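From the methods appendix. Each design record in this collection lists the tokenized structure first, followed by the designed amino acid sequence. Records were kept in a plain field format so they could be parsed without special tools. The example shown here is representative of the layout used throughout.

RECORD:
FOLD TOKENS (186 positions):
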């Protein structure tokens, strides 16, 4: 099989997995998971598109930036998941099929990365998307990275509405003290 067939197969299998994983959320435009699905798809497309050059010329500036973003993504994701599990105290009994187990938190997390930004996990996906883009920057990849960025912005907005419903004034006060994705900036 040639390389492009493997890329398409990787994308198709990954898409099937993301679709299955996201199906309850795809039924609700108000769910943050609806928009997150498109971010996942965009990142998957960037990875599939750029897989042939993933390790090529590792000391080129775009590759160095890519690895920096990808390592940042991994660090933020691990840190964010750990905090949600330890501090957020997810309750699997919460009956909301659009929220994953780790998202069914019963306590608002405001320490660690959450002290500075409201969405460390989505910031990690930003880093993953742009990290995959910088493996081989081109117009197609740029379009996908912009789609990922827009989808994550919409995901965060939808999740903030959900969190306001779940945590009320406590979350509103938290929103006033923190930024969405970049400390002190945005």
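DESIGN:
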């Amino acid at each position: 099989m040639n390389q492009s067939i493997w890329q398409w197969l990787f994308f198709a299998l990954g898409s099937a997995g993301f679709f299955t994983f996201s199906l309850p959320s795809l039924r609700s435009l108000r769910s943050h998971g609806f928009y997150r699905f498109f971010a996942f798809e965009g990142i998957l497309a960037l990875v599939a598109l750029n897989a042939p050059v993933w390790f090529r010329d590792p000391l080129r500036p775009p590759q160095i930036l890519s690895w920096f973003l990808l390592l940042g993504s991994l660090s933020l994701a691990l840190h964010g998941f750990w905090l949600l599990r330890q501090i957020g105290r997810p309750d699997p009994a919460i009956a909301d099929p659009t929220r994953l187990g780790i998202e069914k938190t019963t306590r608002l997390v405001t320490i660690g990365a959450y002290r500075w930004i409201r969405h460390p996990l989505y910031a990690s996906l930003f880093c993953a998307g742009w990290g995959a883009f910088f493996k081989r920057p081109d117009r197609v990849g740029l379009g996908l990275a912009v789609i990922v960025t827009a989808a994550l912005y919409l995901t965060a907005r939808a999740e903030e509405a959900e969190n306001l419903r779940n945590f009320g004034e406590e979350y509103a006060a938290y929103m006033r003290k923190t930024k969405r994705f970049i400390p002190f900036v945005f």
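APPENDIX NOTE: The longest helix spans residues 139-167.
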